Amino acid sequence: MSQPNRIQGNNASAQSRVDASKPITFSFNNKPYTGYSGDTIASALLANDVDVVGRSFKYGRPRGIIAAGAEEPNAILQLGKTEATQIPNIRATQQLIYEGLECHSTNGWPSTERDVMGVVGKLFGRFMPPGFYYKTFMAPSKLWMTYEKMIRKGAGLGRSPKAVDPDTYETINQHADVLVVGGGPAGITAALNAARTGARVILADEQNEFGGNLLSQTDLLDGAPAQDWIDNSIDELATADNVTLLINATVNGYHDHNFLTIHERCTDQSFDLAPEGEIRQRMHRVRAKQVILATGAHERPLVFGNNDIPGCMLASAVSTYINRYNVVPGKKLLLMTSNDNAYNTAFDWHNSGRLVRAIIDTRPAAGKAVVKKATDAGIEIIYSSAIVQAQGNTCISNAMVAPLNETGEKLSGSVKQYDCDTIATSSGWNPAVHLSCHTGGRPTWREDIQGFVPDNFNKNMIATGAGNGLYPLAEILQDAASAGAFAANACGFNATKTSYAKAEVEDVAPSMPIFHIPHFKPTSRAPKQFVDFQLDVTAAGIELAVQEGFESIEHVKRYTALGFGTDQGKLSNINGMAIAAKKLGKTIPETGTTVFRPNYTPVTFGAISGRNVNEFFDIERYSALHTWHVENGAEFEDVGQWKRPWYFPKGEESMHEAVNRECLATRNGVGIIDASTLGKIDIQGPDAREFLNRVYTNAWSKLPVGRCRYGLMCGEDGMVFDDGVTSCISDNHFIMTTTSGGAAHVFNWLEIWHQTEWPELEVYFNSVTDQWATLSISGPKARLLLGELTDIDLNPDTFKFMDLREGVVAGVPARVFRISFTGEQSYEINVQANYALAVWEKLFEHGAKYDITPYGTETMHVLRAEKGFIIVGQDTDGSMTPYDLDMGWAVSPAKEFSFLGKRSLAREDTVKENRKQLVGLKTTDAKTVAPEGSQIVLDPNQKIPMTMVGHVTSSYYSAVLERSIAMAVIKGGLDKMGDKVYMPQADGTTIEAEICSPVFYDPKGERQNVK
Amino acid sequence: MMELNPKDTNIQRCLSMHHVSQKHPAESVHYSLQEMALGHLMVRIPETNTDAIKAIKSVIGLDLPTQPLSSVENNHFVINWIAPDEFLILTADKTEHALEAKLREEISGHFAIVDVTGGQTVLSLSGERAEIILKKSSTYDVHISYFPIGKVVTTVFAKSQLVMRRTGADSFQLVVRRSFSDYIWQWIVDAGSRA
């Protein structure tokens, strides 16, 4: 029969959430299995009596399913049908099956059933103490990479896909008055009480449906099955428009100022690949005024010998499989508990029609209610005893039970064998305090419940229910109702009364503080007693770590790897601490706890990046002429976020050929460049001139209306950080231009100085970068061309170099600046951006007869380098003063008020001899273009390490000069004109060059000033 | 101060979204996205210049919205608060120059007016999916209880930023800088393609 562990007929659970009318086929380790709709992979595998789901990390021991939720350490699977949809480390307990699902064990190469590491672990396990890998594979260190690959392959914890992820992910920002984390009885109750006040509420749960632990237990609420209450409550919340309900949505991170991230898996529970048009996962970025943590608790297993044999499970997990999934994971159960609550597991098992071998209670007595139920069911209870060791290989065959002394620290009698195939254990519950730690909270120990609870350092966070160490259901509901009302009131709402469902109250006997079951042998000699299943940390390992001198729990954790797995030690941390504390002779609170970081469970990179991929990975800023550039075959270069045309190749032209052609066309005819990306700042106010005086190194007091001036900007350190031309429109109105990449920085710089230091200056700045498109025509024929299209008088005697005129160009109102970055006669035509394309096309229409040639940034760079014009950020690097650039002419130290950077220009270091200075370089071989960045030495024969005196900042082939030209910064370069320098290359050759002026072309500036 | 629109109305004008809206049409029954042709003036006035504030009222017929994050409007104009001394006046298409001229005539003392009509644009976003598109794009709380009609904020939008103003329960105006047009338009169309 298929699904031998599925409960049939009268024994079936009335509250089961699986639909037996909808069978689903899936595969695990390439073998097909059938489960039902509503099954997780774990419940379906257990239904099919699959014991072994993986191999352990270090020792390669066979491992089975332990838990039923996020805390599962063993059933960690690789999911995915195709290479592109591979997902590592999926917890089988949280993943629903869907038709065709394919999954594999992540551990156990080459196979789960028979693997290499298992043999190694078995033979040498004794010799693999904590730190084994550190200690063993230390030398030789260069081989570690090889060792690591093999160890990883053998141990394995899943792998990433090697193909591009075809799915789509999204992020969404949410704001809430109250975010309720966890949709169990506490969370639902809190959400109801908060939502009824009108507060904006988000209720999120990691499972595929609301209900939390109620889905696993058989409690009645208001005298009816709990599912009725869940359904009614969720209906109410779903119809309220102030409530957002999220399922399959894990609140994974709790960040400062009540910012939380929720990882919603939209299609993962149904599809390998999200259907077309749907997103696979969504990250909710939530800002909440109040957060209610109703996160529930994880049951704590008891630590005993061979407690990792498949069949050893948490008591609550066994109940979950029976009640929620209609699956009973074995035939004969032996239950070990230190509390009353876990007795329910025995009753659930009994009700499913299978045998409860016995209840082993570590206490001398149990609560009356559970004892009566056990007696009625005919289940034997063995008090003051414990399971000291399980036996079996890939499944349990029997267990050794022995009497315990009063404190649980020693065995006090002889062993009795019990045959069984399932061992369920419980030593109580650990509140899921994880989120409360993310922003720095330190959980506090409560002796009465033997567990850590969230501390209350965040005044806008309330923990309730089992997540706050409250376990009786009736009390949980009452407390959660108050929490919901309190949170709403804290947001300014008015909750006058609370309401909550009534649960039965039962007398419960106190639980016993016990974590680690003693063995006849010392821990180090006893069969392995696992604490952290995922990383194979044993009680002996922790004791050894303490013995080796690790006293801080944080050190013990790192040395043993306790809690380092993808499960973050959800099952293991408290047991590990308790064992360390005992060995240290301290109490648990004295030993302290480790805290948790985001995320609670692993999050995919896709959900983190959302839509910020491909075309949205980074902003692309376009000028108003971008489409023309694309249509005309431009290659593009990134300048900041701008896409600027780099060059415009014709036909099969190489970049080099295109640039040479563009350069010559501009030098001999007319070239045109889209300079719209230049930063432009409109400056208005009576103190505009004074402000310019203070931020630029040169003087602005006397710049006449209609004139332009080049300026350098320095930081307080005296180093050049931007340059550009500023023009006087009217006495209190200027237009500043900045570098394309520096515009935002310069704008902020001006605002900061205005707002913080000189608020008394009456001046305003506005960014007009995008307002004005800048079409720059250059070359001997530029004036001819412009003359055909404008009403502006271009007479060079009146419209001189560095003049500005307003008029109409190609029918469009324009500001025309006669300024030049090429050294040619040049006009920068500025028009409102909406009309840029019309003017641009008109220029081409009329320019055709002059062979007007569009050029890009590369040609612009060559042309300016021929003239020795610097590019800030290329020829400067934040360590160059105006004097280092030989631009002392642009500094006016005599200005009345100081200017930014002035004081630093007199510092000892900025005036010292031998600073790096900007010079030109001509290579001895005119055809050799030295690579930019080449280091410069004076003696090519010096032994390595050579004395480097500078480097090449710009280097090009100049078509008009028919030779290579370069700019470089060289120590004391300005005094070394004519000297030979050398540039050793990576290939062993050396390029020789001569230091010269950086102005290679038209040194007198006759071309730009041409009349 | 210049009139920047050509006299010849046959000259082709390409608003910010001209190309991207053709290449990536926003065709959806769930939301509507349209570019509005408007005149844009950035006005900077110190709050101490009370004469100027009066002068603006005389020209526009509206009090400057000095309350942070607020806006005022009448049949001809919208004034958006941008910063304590910074306001964005939106006016009918091609009327920005006449308005600027009138304002300059009336206002005295320290102020600045800048025509930014070509440098930015207004997108009208409306429909049942409009708010969720904003939630996918901005960290600002756009719920109507926090972002009511008439409120205006300058805030992050995807990796960019913009000014947004609510004009109705399901309708918004977004002021976008020209060079970010393609990015923001495509982002909205993408975000709007899913619920």
Structure in words:
The complex is a heterodimer of chains A (1011) and B (195). With 1011 residues, chain A is of the alpha+beta class. Chain A contains 23 helices and 49 strands. Among the domains of chain A are: 9-155, Roll (Ubiquitin-like (UB roll)); 169-297 and 431-490, FAD/NAD(P)-binding domain; 302-426, 3-Layer(bba) Sandwich (FAD/NAD(P)-binding domain); 522-597, BFD-like [2Fe-2S]-binding domain (Arc Repressor Mutant, subunit A, Orthogonal Bundle), CATH 1.10.10; 914-1011, Elongation Factor Tu (Ef-tu), domain 3 (Beta Barrel), CATH 2.40.30.110. Helices cover 21% and strands 27% of the residues of chain A. In chain A, strands 8, 9, 12, 13, 14, 15 and 28 form a seven-stranded mixed β-sheet that branches. In chain A, strands 40-41-42-39-33-43 form a six-stranded mixed β-sheet. In chain A, helix 12 crosses helix 13 (553-560), helix 12 packs across helix 14 and helix 18 (655-668) packs across helix 23. With 195 residues, chain B is α+β, with helices and mostly antiparallel strands. Chain B has a single domain (18-192), classed as Gyrase A, domain 2. Chain B has helices at 18-23, 50-60, 96-106, 130-137, 181-192; strands spanning 32-36, 38-44, 71-73, 78-83, 86-92, 112-115, 120-126, 152-157, 160-168, 171-177. In chain B, the strands form two sheets. A five-stranded antiparallel β-sheet of chain B has the order 1-7-10-9-8, covered by helices on one side. A five-stranded antiparallel β-sheet of chain B has the order 3-4-5-2-6, with helices on one face. The longest helix of chain B is centred in the C-terminal third of the chain and has 12 residues, at 181-192. Chain B is globular and about 50 Å long. The interface between A and B is large, with 56 and 53 residues.
